[in-house]
Write a structure and sequence with these properties.
This protein is α/β, with parallel strands linked by helices and 248 residues long. The protein has helices at residues 3-12, 35-50, 64-71, 84-94, 128-141, 159-162, 173-183, 211-225, 236-245; strands at residues 54-58, 76-81, 99-101, 114-120, 142-151, 188-192, 197-203. It binds S-adenosylmethionine.
C-alpha cells in the first residue's frame, strides 16, 4: 500500500484499523456521535476565554473542528496536517487558502502567528521527541493559549487500545503536562480532568492563573448542555484540590 492509499483508507474505509474508526463518518474523522459535542464544548470555551480571533488547528484531519471554529465561532482558522487526503477534504471544509501540509513537529509559521493553538487527537501518534518538538512549536506560534488532547493511558489496555496499531504514546494528563512543561518552560501548564482522554492546557499572560479552572467549568457546563456529559469526570475532585492548593 503506498502512502496515498494508506491515507485514503485511514480516513475513508470503515473496515480499516478497527478501533481507530467508528461512529459516524459524517464529521470527517470517525467521530462517535457523543464525542463531537465534547470537543465542540472545549473548543468554544477555549476561544471565548482566551479571546482568540485566530486559531491554528494542528493535525486538523478532514477539518471538522476547523470548520466548526470558522463557521460557528467566527475564528480565522489555519488547519495543518501531514495527510494530503485529509487536507484536501479540510480545504473544502474551511477554505483552501488556510490549510497547510506539514509535520506538526516542525511547524512552518512565524512566532506568535496565532492567538491560540489547538491539537486534538494527534500527538499520541508521534515519538516522544517529536511530541516534545510539537509542544515547543505550538507555544512558539501561539500568543496566549494552547490546548492539546490525546488518548488516555488507560485506553492502552482496552480492546480499542489493543487493536490500535498507530498510537505510540499512552500518557496520562499529568505525564503530558510534565512533557509540556519541559518543552515550554516559560508557559503555565495544567493537566485537565476530562474523562476518557488526556488533555492539557498551556497559557500565558494576559491570561491569569484562574484560566484552566474557568476553562474546565465552562467546557463541562457546555458538554452537559449538549447532552455529552453523563457523569462528573472522576479526575475532577483531584483537579479542584490542586487548584485550591494553588490558591484558586
Ligand atoms: C485522530 S485524527 C484527528 C483529527 C482532528 N484533529 C480531529 O480532532 O478531528 C489524527 C490526525 O493527525 C494527523 N497527524 C498524525 N501525525 C501527524 C504529524 N506528525 N503532523 C501533522 N499531522 C499529523 C493525521 O494525519 C490525522 O489527520
Amino acid at each position: 500500500m503506498n502512502a496515498a492509499e494508506f491515507e485514503e483508507r485511514y480516513f475513508e474505509d470503515p473496515g480499516f484499523a478497527p478501533g481507530l474508526k467508528g461512529g459516524d463518518e459524517v464529521r470527517g474523522y470517525g467521530y462517535f456521535p457523543d464525542y463531537f459535542p465534547i470537543v465542540e464544548a472545549q473548543l468554544s470555551a477555549l476561544a471565548e476565554l482566551s479571546g482568540a480571533e485566530s486559531l491554528l488547528d494542528a493535525g486538523c484531519g478532514k477539518g471538522a473542528l476547523a470548520a466548526y471554529a470558522r463557521q460557528d465561532l467566527g475564528l480565522r482558522v489555519t488547519g495543518l496536517d501531514r495527510s494530503r487526503h485529509g487536507l484536501a477534504s479540510a480545504a473544502r471544509a474551511f477554505g483552501g487558502a488556510r490549510s497547510v501540509r506539514a509535520d506538526c513537529a516542525r511547524l512552518p509559521f512565524k512566532a506568535a502567528a496565532f492567538d491560540a493553538a489547538w491539537c486534538n487527537g494527534v500527538l499520541q501518534y508521534l515519538a516522544a521527541d517529536d511530541a516534545r518538538a510539537a509542544l515547543a512549536g505550538l507555544v512558539r506560534v501561539a500568543r496566549r493559549a494552547v490546548f492539546v488532547s490525546n488518548i488516555a493511558a488507560a485506553q492502552r489496555h482496552t480492546e480499542w487500545g489493543r487493536r490500535d496499531p498507530l498510537t505510540r504514546l499512552y500518557l496520562g494528563p499529568r505525564s503530558w503536562a510534565a512533557l509540556a512543561a519541559e518543552a515550554a518552560p516559560s508557559w503555565r501548564v495544567a493537566a485537565l480532568p476530562f474523562e476518557g482522554e488526556s488533555a492539557i492546557l498551556l497559557w500565558r499572560a494576559p491570561l491569569t492563573a484562574v484560566f484552566p479552572l474557568r476553562f474546565v467549568e465552562l467546557a463541562l457546563e457546555r458538554q452537559r448542555r449538549l447532552g455529552a456529559l453523563r457523569r462528573s469526570p472522576p479526575g475532577l475532585d483531584d483537579f479542584y484540590r490542586r487548584q485550591a492548593r494553588a490558591g484558586l
